[in-house]
Amino acid sequence: MREVDLFVIGGGSGGVRAARVAAQHGARVALAEEYRLGGTCVIRGCVPKKLMVMASRFAQGFREAGGFGWALPAAPVFDWAALKRQVDAEVLRLEGVYRTTLERAGVQVHDERAVLDDAHTVRLLRSGERLRARHVLVATGATPEAGPDFPGAGLASTSNDLFRWPAQPRRVVVQGAGYIALEFACLLNLLGSQVMVVLRRDRILRGFDDDVRAHLQSQLTAQGIGFETQASISAIDRHGTGLAATLGGGTLIETDAVLRALGRRPNTQGLGLEAAGVALDDRGAVKVTIDGRTSVEHIHAVGDVTNRVQLTPAAIREGQVYADRVFGGIDAVPLSHLGEHGLVPSAVFTTPEVGCAGLTEAEALTRHADIDIYIATFRPMKATLAGGDERTLMKLVVRRSTDRVLGCHIVGADAAEMIQLLGVALTLGARKADLDATLAVHPTAAEELVTMRVPARRHGI
After folding, report:
1. How far apart are CA 362 and CA 35, in angstroms?
2. Angle at which helices 13-24 and 312-328 pack, to 10 degrees?
C-alpha cells in the first residue's frame, strides 16, 4: 500500500492551498477531486458568477449613457450563448492553472472520488487503489441545499445548474433570499429576464444588518424585481412550453425556469467519515476545533465542509494555516481569531453591491449597551446625470466608550472594493476618531465614511 504524509480529499480552494503548501514544506502529498479542480469558487460559484454580474451591468451602463452625451446607434443586443462560451473558457483556463500549480509543487492529483475505509486508509473508487495516509484533510466543500420536497421539485434548477442553462429564460422564479439567490436574481433581471423572488420572510438577506436588508430590498424592487414575501413554493408543473409554480396560498406564477437557491449544506455524504471516527453535527458538517482538528487526532477539515465561515478566502486561510502548522512548524494565526470578533469582510454582488465587515447593529447591542450608529444615504454622483432612483447607504457601528468602530456596512457601487480596505482598518482596531482624522478624497462615494460626524441613533443614553 502506497504511503503519503497527507491525503487531501477535495480539490477546491482550501484543499488545493493546503496540498500545495504542505508539498512545499517537503511532505508527500496526494489529492483527489471527483469533479473538476477549483471547487465551488472557480467552477460553479464566485468566478463565473462575478463574470456574469459584470456582463449584466453593461445593460445598466447602456441605459445611463444618454445622460452623459452618448447616443447609441442601435438598441444593444445581449447574447447569452456568447457570454456562456467566454465564461466557460475562463473557468477552463483557471482549472488548468490549479492543476499546474499542484503538479509543479509535487502533489499527486487523482481525478476520482476518494473515501475513507478507516482513519488512515483512503480508497480511490474508480481505480480501487488504497493509500495509507499519515494525515488526512477533508476539504469537500458544500453543495446546494435541496430544500423541502414537493410535487415537481425536480423541474427546478439549482445554482449549479444555472451555469449550464443553454439559453436565458424570459421569466424566472427564484426561491430563496440569501446572497446566492439575490445575486442571480439581480443579474438575470439586468440581462432582461422577468424575475420574481419567493421568500419565507418579509426581508431579504437574513443575518445581515437590518438597514442593509431594507435598503437593498427597496433598490431591487425599484429595478423591477418582484418579491412574494411570507411565501413558499408548494408545486411546480409543466405549463405549455414553460412551467407554473404554485405558492402555498394557491397563487400561480407562470415562468420559464425556477431557480432554488436555499443555501448550501456540507458535502460529507458517502465519504466514510463515520467509519473513520470523524464526528459530524446535525447538519452533516464536520465538527472541528479552532485549529480545524476533528474528533480524530490526525484528520482535519477546512472550508465549507465545516459550516463555519462559508467564504473562499476563509477556506484558503484555513488551508494555509493547517499546512504551515502541521508540516512547516509555523505557528500561524487561525481564522477564528478574526471570526470571534466579527471582522471577516464579505460582499454580495448584487447591483448595487453590499459590503460588510464587523458587527451588525443588532449584534453589537448583544455585546455592548453604549452603541452609536452613523448613517449616510445619498444619491451617487453618477445618478445626477444618468437619472434613476439609485441611492447609496453607508453605516458605521461604533462603541461609544472606546470609540472603536465595530462594524461597517455599505450598499452601493463598488461596495466590495471599499469594504476590503475598511476591513484592514477594522482589523487594526480603528476608532471613529481615526476615520474622522482621515482626509477625504473628493468627489468619491467613499469619502462619506470619513465625514460622518453626527450619530443617527444612540443606544444606552
Report:
1. 41
2. 20
Superfamily of domain 346-459: FAD/NAD-linked reductase, C-terminal dimerisation domain (3.30.390.30)
Indicate which residues carry an active-site annotation: 442
Question: In which element (H, E) is residue 198 found?
Answer: strand 194-198
Do residues 216 and 352 touch, judged by C-beta distance below 8 A? yes
SS3 326: helix
Phi-psi group of 163: left, alpha or beta (phi > 0 → left; psi -120 to 50 → alpha; rest → beta): alpha
How far apart, in Å, are the Cα atoms of 338 and each of 209, 368, 372?
19, 19, 22
Report the alpha-carbon angle 146-150-156, nearest 5.
55
Q: What is the DSSP string of 389-437?
A: ---EEEEEEEETTT-BEEEEEEEETTHHHHHHHHHHHHHTT-BHHHHHT
Average pLDDT, the chain: 95
How many CB atoms lie under 10 A from the CB of residue 89?
10
Instruction: Classify burial at 68, counting beta carbons within 10 Å of its beta carbon; exposed 0-12, middle 13-18, buried 19 or more.
Output: exposed
Q: How many CA within 13 A on the CB side of residue 167?
A: 5
Is 189 strand, coil or helix? helix
Check if CATH label 3.50.50.60 holds for domain 2-144+265-338. yes
Q: What is the DSSP letter of 355?
A: E
N-terminal to C-terminal alpha carbon distance within the chain? 69
User: Which top CATH class is 153-262?
Assistant: alpha beta
Q: What is the dihedral of CA 95, 101, 107, 109, to 10 degrees?
A: 10
Sequence spans of domains, the chain: 2-144+265-338, 153-262, 346-459
pLDDT digits (tens, 9 = 90+) for 113-163: 999 999 999 999 999 999 999 999 999 999 999 899 999 999 999 999 999
Closest Cα partner for 192 from 332, 350, 58?
A: 58
Identify which of 416, 434, 415 has the alpha carbon closest to the alpha carbon of residue 426: 434
- CA 285 to mean position of chain CA atoms: 18
pLDDT of 389: 86
Residues sharing a CB contact under 8 Å with residue 289, sequence separation 6 or more, in sequence order: none
Task: For residue 443, say if its preceding peptide bond is cis, omega within 30 degrees of 0.
Answer: yes
Q: Any idea which residue has 467564504 for its cell?
A: 311
Element (H, E) at 21: helix 13-24
Place of cell 427564484: 174
pTM summary value:
0.94
